[in-house]
């Protein structure tokens, strides 16, 4: 088994991609958006972080977070978000023998993709990637049309014009399978 290490920067800013285990034809994240929002709120109460950007698509999500100074434990936050979300769901998913033996639910992929933001240009590219993603996947004509995104709050904060339709590098490596 490979020796997997995550790059950690205390108080850092990170981009994440988190995928459902069964992605094809699965709209669970949008169907249960209130449950996901509640899970995130619960975690932020005990382990604060700033949400710079977030988009929830039917089968995966992307976000940019900034952690508090001295804190680099994004893994615990994701473990808790996934756990709280899953606890609110009925046990109807198909389970592999391995997941059943380990007492796991078959909702999330085990890992997540993370990238430590390096500079302002990297930050802007990942913010754009998050907000353009519904358009990329054919779910919305423009970022402003997608309801499960921080795009409108970023417009309110003056980070984007309301009619922004995406610019720059849309082929960013972002942890989505099949890209």
From TrEMBL:
Residue ranges of domain Transposase IS200-like in the record: 9-133
Organism this protein belongs to: metagenome
PANTHER family associated with the record: REP-ASSOCIATED TYROSINE TRANSPOSASE (PTHR36966:SF1)
Any one Gene Ontology molecular-function term assigned to this protein's record: transposase activity
Classification via InterPro entries: RAYT_transposase (IPR052715), Transposase_17 (IPR002686), Transposase_17_sf (IPR036515)
A biological process term (GO) from this entry: DNA transposition
Protein name: Transposase IS200-like domain-containing protein
